[in-house]
Backbone:
């Protein structure tokens, strides 16, 4: 039985239930089809060092139509032509099927459609604009988002940020409606949901409306807490380098496009450099209150 879901501004038609996504009415024609099938590939695909899920690095294979991610005992997935996702029987049998599908695989569809992607999170601010938080794993992206939510902001996306441009203006497209927090941050922010294997996953209200981007925070985990406005071009390079999909997908043409898009974002946004520690909750709390005021 076909099921329909809506996220990232697209309608997904799926032959398997996806509990993490907002349900959509049946459509005459979906934007993306998700279906089971054989995914042939190399016996030893190239390992992706910049992606890790459940302590696994996937293998990747690319061709002119798309790419395949091999998550070993959790199966294989393929995204192609911006409109089709395929998974194999091993993936369908994995208890972590959605964990692998709704991040890099679905994000790959938007990459194929020309979106600028980041490994980060995004909040809808009270003035109707968006702030994004990006950085390496453990830098505090979701935790920072959690503090913004605490003081009245809404989650636009967590884990993968989708950005597209309208007449040169960058917009954040809301994506997966979850807030993911480590247990220490979840406890500090007052969440008591049942814990998953590694993180709390808190469902949030989904909105489909793109939001103009006005602030970008480049996060780093260091031995002190500070948030400072940036007047340099370093954040442009941080935006360019923060690619959440396999680096094998960045052909010279894609690298040039991404570099231009990062420059466009850095020209119109307020840029901030953020340093934090594992124990900077109180300082972050105070700073977010002052920023939103």
Residues:
């Amino acid at each position: 039985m076909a099921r329909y879901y809506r996220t990232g501004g697209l309608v997904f038609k799926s032959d398997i239930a996806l509990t993490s996504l907002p349900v959509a009415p049946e459509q005459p024609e979906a934007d993306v089809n998700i279906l089971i099938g054989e995914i042939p590939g190399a016996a030893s695909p190239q390992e992706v060092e910049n992606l890790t899920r459940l302590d696994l690095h996937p293998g990747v294979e690319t061709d002119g139509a798309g790419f395949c991610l091999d998550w070993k005992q959790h199966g294989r997935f393929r995204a192609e032509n911006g409109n089709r996702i395929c998974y194999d029987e091993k993936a369908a049998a994995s208890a972590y099927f959605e964990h692998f599908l709704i991040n890099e695989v679905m994000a790959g569809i938007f990459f194929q459609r020309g979106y600028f992607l980041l490994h980060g999170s995004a909040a809808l601010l009270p003035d109707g604009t968006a702030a994004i938080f990006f950085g390496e794993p453990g830098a505090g992206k979701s935790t920072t988002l959690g503090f913004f939510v605490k003081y009245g902001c809404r989650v636009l996306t967590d884990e993968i940020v989708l950005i597209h441009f309208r007449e040169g203006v960058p917009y954040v497209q809301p994506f997966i409606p979850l807030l993911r927090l480590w247990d220490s941050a979840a406890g500090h922010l007052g969440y008591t949901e049942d814990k998953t294997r590694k993180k709390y996953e808190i469902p949030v209200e989904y909105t489909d409306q793109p939001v103009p981007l006005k602030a970008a925070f480049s996060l780093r985990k260091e031995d002190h807490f500070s948030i400072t406005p940036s007047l340099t071009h370093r954040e442009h390079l941080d935006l360019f380098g923060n690619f959440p999909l396999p680096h094998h997908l960045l052909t010279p043409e894609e690298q040039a496009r991404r570099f231009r898009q990062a420059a466009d974002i850095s020209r119109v946004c307020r840029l901030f450099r953020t340093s934090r520690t594992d124990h900077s909750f109180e300082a972050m709390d105070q700073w977010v209150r002052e920023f939103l005021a």
Observations:
- The mean pLDDT is 89.
